[in-house]
Specification:
This protein is α/β, with parallel strands linked by helices. The chain is built from 5 helices and 5 strands; from the N terminus they run βαβαβαβαβα.
């Protein structure tokens, strides 16, 4: 089974998928999996209870696309264009796999959030302090 990259909006371009494969998976083949979901607009004013409800629904959709096969693995998430969804999706993935995902910010996603630049990979597990120097990716 190949390593999986999850996305909501758009899959990675071939170039970006190759970059992610090389950087995270040592060049192994990857499969991109769309998380089916119709997302409402979230904002600072959206009550936390609504975020929690959407997280529950996203977890159900993640199980539908087979995230249980990635239990105890750190998967890759292509950052959605709407930055309010980062934390909701990351928490849903962590709840299903036991690890926060690698977050890939593409050039178009970075443009959408007004932080232009090339594609980059953020280690959310490390960001939250769940990795130490002896932990492998």
């Amino acid at each position: 089974m190949s390593d999986r990259i999850y996305y909501l909006d758009e899959p990675l371009s071939d170039e970006d998928a190759s970059f992610v494969s090389d950087q995270i998976f040592g060049g192994r083949s990857v499969t991109q999996v769309r998380i089916p979901y119709v997302l409402p607009v979230l904002s600072e004013e959206t009550p936390i209870e609504m975020h929690q409800e959407h997280e529950k629904l996203l977890r159900k959709h993640l199980r539908t696309v087979g995230i249980t096969n990635d239990m105890n693995k750190q998967v890759v998430l292509v950052a959605p264009k709407d930055m309010w969804w980062y934390s909701v999706i990351s928490r849903a993935i962590e709840a299903e796999t036991g690890s926060y995902p690698w977050l890939v910010q593409t050039k178009s996603q970075r443009d959408a959030i007004k932080n232009p630049g090339e594609t980059r990979i953020l280690d959310m597990e490390g960001f939250f302090g769940y990795k130490d120097e002896s932990t492998d990716a």
